[in-house]
Amino acid sequence: MSKKDLRFKGKMEIGRVIAYLEDLIKSLREGTLYVQQGEEYVALHPVELMKLEVEAGRKDEKERLMFEISWKKEATIPSQSELKITPSEPEKESKNTGDNAYGENDIIQF
Length: 110
Prior knowledge:
Blueprint: H1 14-30, E1 33-37, E2 40-44, E3 51-59, E4 62-70
Antiparallel strand pairs: 1-2, 3-4
């Protein structure tokens, strides 16, 4: 398998940064990204399951926000139990009903 990378660093106005991010979102939705610099380009084909890393920081007068999105070509979404995040405590069900009820000290794996 061949490896091909393009890297870009530069200062630009926020409007141009937003335009790049909008192009990224559009390309992700369409399922193909072409990243081009001059006559060189890299074609990427995102899959359904992706890894997203976000890093934000501030030190003195410098602030930064970094995103890294990666995926494996043959990635599939693993079958998992449903995860819920709510602001209120879930209602507890009786354990003898056979439902997936849990107590405060139970360990829940996802």
